[in-house]
Specification:
- By secondary structure, the protein is of the alpha/beta class.
- The chain has two domains: 184 residues, 3-Layer(aba) Sandwich (Rossmann fold); 65 residues.
- 42% of the residues lie in helices and 18% in strands.
- It has ten helices and 13 strands.
- A seven-stranded parallel β-sheet has the order 3-4-2-1-7-8-9, with helices on both faces. The chain has a four-stranded antiparallel β-sheet with strand order 10-11-12-13.
- It is elongated and about 90 Å long.
- It comes from Rhodoblastus acidophilus.
Length: 333
């Protein structure tokens, strides 16, 4: 793909229908390859390419690792794999660390495309919760590419496009049905010159997703240490320097925006609370038999002690359950 452009699209909640609308407007002769990351469950059966192809004039498929990408085709990240692109338009699939709680994630695709294609990349952020894609769009802009964002006011989930608008110098913000026609225009325009600028941090971050992390010293130089721990691996998190939105990364490569980290910790907290409730109820159940045995042999003091312990465990479990059930949890996708 020496002169062709790459259109990299990221979406989450509400994204499948949004992607169908965009792809329906793109012609078979589009002078660009289209790369798509839609947040998926790792257990997804992988039917997304077939769903998207129904309304597209272009072939749609998940690429094979090492496949050479071609214009006029759509390449969809498969479940539980990051979709990356290397110099020369080679697609790579990676089981590298999750970013923003997902694999595939939008930011790794955008970063790799920015480094491989520079000003020939058009990054597109569509509907979705939280803020995956904003940091990746920054990388595309840093390397001279273009940023296109769906109008948050009409997105099924406004958070992702709104975050992109808040943190990136976006070139185009349009309603969904106008994005496809504009992408055709942008794909046909000549690319600008690649700007200069420091890219060492971008290169280091991109390396994590590809499974080739930078040396530990380089990784630790990306940010300042914090007292927070990675919810994925338990390692220490650093706050990345100059990141907006605020982002964190551990030295093994898991990365989170502040909102994604909060959501992940909230899920882990709920899991821990339910585990504690289970353990307390089990303690209460286990205390019953020795309490009965103590009573049967006339040890009233021992029986009362065990019965009180069981009652205390049940009461604490009930209070924790009531508190957990009354929490207002902000969902994400």
């Amino acid at each position: 793909m020496p002169e062709s452009k790459v259109i990299a699209i990221g979406a989450s909640a509400g994204g499948i229908e949004a992607l169908r609308v965009v792809l329906a407007a793109l012609p078979r002769a589009l002078p660009a390859a289209v790369l798509i990351v839609q947040h998926l469950s790792p257990q997804s059966p992988g039917f997304l390419p077939k769903i998207l192809e129904r309304g597209s004039t272009m072939p749609v498929a998940s690429p094979v690792d090492g496949e050479k990408m071609r214009p006029g085709r759509v390449y969809v990240a498969p479940p539980d794999r990051h979709l990356l692109v290397e110099d020369g338009g080679v697609a790579r699939l990676s089981s590298g660390p999750r970013e923003n709680r997902f694999r595939p994630a939008v930011d790794p695709l955008f970063r790799s495309a920015a480094l491989a294609f520079g000003p020939r990349v058009i990054g597109v952020v569509l509907t979705g919760f939280l803020d995956d894609g904003a940091a990746g769009l920054q990388a595309i802009k840093l390397c001279g590419g273009l940023a296109v964002v769906q109008d948050p006011s009409e997105a099924w989930a406004a958070s992702m496009p709104a975050s992109a608008l808040a943190h990136v110098d976006v070139d185009v913000c349009l309603p969904l049905r106008e994005i496809g026609p504009r992408l055709i225009e942008l794909a046909q325009q000549p690319a600008g010159a690649a700007p200069g600028g420091e890219r060492s941090a971008l290169i280091a971050e991109a390396a994590f997703a590809g499974g080739h992390p930078p040396p530990l010293e380089e990784a630790l130089a990306l940010g300042e240490p914090t007292l927070l721990t990675c919810p994925e691996c338990g390692g220490g998190l650093m706050r990345l320097r100059g990141a907006a939105p605020t982002r964190y990364r551990c030295h093994t490569g898991h990365a989170f925006t502040e909102r994604a980290l909060f959501a992940n910790l909230a899920e882990n907290t709920e899991s821990a609370v339910w585990s504690a409730i289970r353990a307390l109820r089990e303690q209460a159940m286990l205390a019953r038999r020795p309490a009965r045995e103590a009573a049967a042999r006339g040890d009233r003091e021992g029986a009362d002690h065990l019965e009180k312990k069981a009652a205390d465990c049940r009461a604490l479990a009930d209070r924790m359950r009531a508190t957990q059930c009354n929490l207002a949890v902000d969902g994400s996708a």
